[in-house]
Amino acid sequence: MSLASLPVATRDELQRLLHGPCDSSFLSALHKALAAGCGPDAGEAADSGRQLLHRLRLLGETLPPAGRLLDDPAQVAALHAWAAVADPSLCLAALVHHLLCLGSMAQLADDKGEHLGRQMEALRAGRAKGVYLITEAGQANSHLATRTHAELDRATGEFVLHTPDPQAAKFGSAGTLDVPQTAVVLARLVTDGTDRGVFAFVVELTDDHGLLPGVEVSSPLGLGALPLDYVLVRFHHVRVPYAHWLADGAGIGDDGTFHDLAGAKEGRLQRTLRVGQGLWATMPAVAAATARQSAVQAVNYARQRRTQGRLAPGVPLLTYRTQQRAVLGALADAFALTCAADGARTVWAESLAAPAARTDNGADAMGFTPWAAVSRPLAAYKAATVRLAARITAVCQSRCGFSGHLDVNGLAAYHGFHHTFDAAGGDSQLIFYDIGRSLAEEGEQAPEDASSAPPVSPHWWPAIVRAHQDRLTRHLSEQLRTTDPSTPFDAWNPLLEDAGLLGEVYADALVAENVPRTLDGIHDHELAQALRPLAALHGVMAARRWSGSLLAHGTLRPADIRGLSVVADELCDAVVPHLPLLTEAFAHPDDVVCAPLAAPDYDTALRATLTWTRGGAE
Fold first, then answer.
1. Angle, CA of 263, 376 and 136, to the nearest 5°
2. For the whole model, what pTM was predicted?
């Protein structure tokens, strides 16, 4: 079965599954925008600030106007997912540009950005690059203790933005000094000497001539895994217009009276940081797209590459069970990420439609980070999906030999992107600690029975992982009751490893539950049949990864774990007949990917990228 042989309705259903509810015209425009940056010189061109702006402009032209940027979460997610497949560094720049910088203006400006119309349009049109400055490099957990401050000068009505000491310097991708850059800077608002909480401010960093007065940047900070223009930024009494304060409903009266609907300062921080939900909701789509492309390339390599091993000289690598479990398992995990992307988009769309209420009561308390308190499910989706995508791309790299590590094939860049994002965009491990801590403090869960479905069913793993979450929650709650609640650090310090484990299981359960839900929503019977063994294989591979914890807490028995290898092989056999359809559907267009590993004849495609020099007698 191939894509061309499918009915139109089935092809449309498959497109929606892979790319969300985006119409074909949008995807065609996105394809065209990204294909323009593909080729042997694309990486060098992207180093130029002007070229980066050009590529951001091409992407921006496919999206709604700046003020309605977030009206269609599916388009936003698809744009960044495709950008990641084409160029992970471009994707990171676009995520910061669209979701954190423009997104802050669209969501936090009281007048819906009317006073920031010039800045927002310049960003959307690619005349300026968007930057987001939140992290302060000199201390851990700086999001919870921001020290950069913006003090109101009542005489002029301006804010004075200042970095109090070197440890409060902001880290960010703000080193493109040859183009205009507009930043959203998180700083502590001070009025009449009183700390009012952390707000966002729109600050011009550079213009066509370089840095603006009062802005200081360090020399570049190299980050080879995800190259971009990273620097430290300091502010020296920079004047910020009152209209550039993203007040989000707060206000300062003529007499200096301050009011804020967020209530306490912790509530203010949660509201200011809610723009992060767009990033977390988009990352599963990004993870899914790069994981699918990685798995397709690994399968393609394994089908073409013939081994001369003495067991069976001349057979393709994919004949070996070990290779099947690895690369078909990667394909299965990529499908699970695709299902999770839809779940995350749904949660984000619901959060955008809901009014932003006071966050004093009923929200998760902030612990190591603010992220789980802002949105537990979206923070969990981000953490789980980037970690799984990093694992998938690493497996695909290793299973493609030296070819998997060649820059031209893109797997190294995909792995670097997701491995870096384990800490970026909200540290995944700290998110897991906070989620596990909150679940344990909320109390024991009613135990669920383990699944009665067999492991070859897509419904088996979601039931198992939820049952495991319940067992871990009960175990951690029991441990917590033996500690002294008046000394939280002493109580939690020895329990953090278990809390992190519980948080990760909760996040993996979110991903797992999206898989059968997605399958149940597929109308075409043949398409569902092709995807069903892939869905079940994801569950079996996940259970193998979690085997130690599952055994330790009695969720599965040793015999259950021993039997998973046989089930995995049965499911691989069921997947193989559908590989032509799956790999064709999961792959992105050749002129977006530009990777020899994706070609029908990998060796020929690789040689076509090379030039040769021959020595000769003089």
1. 70
2. 0.94
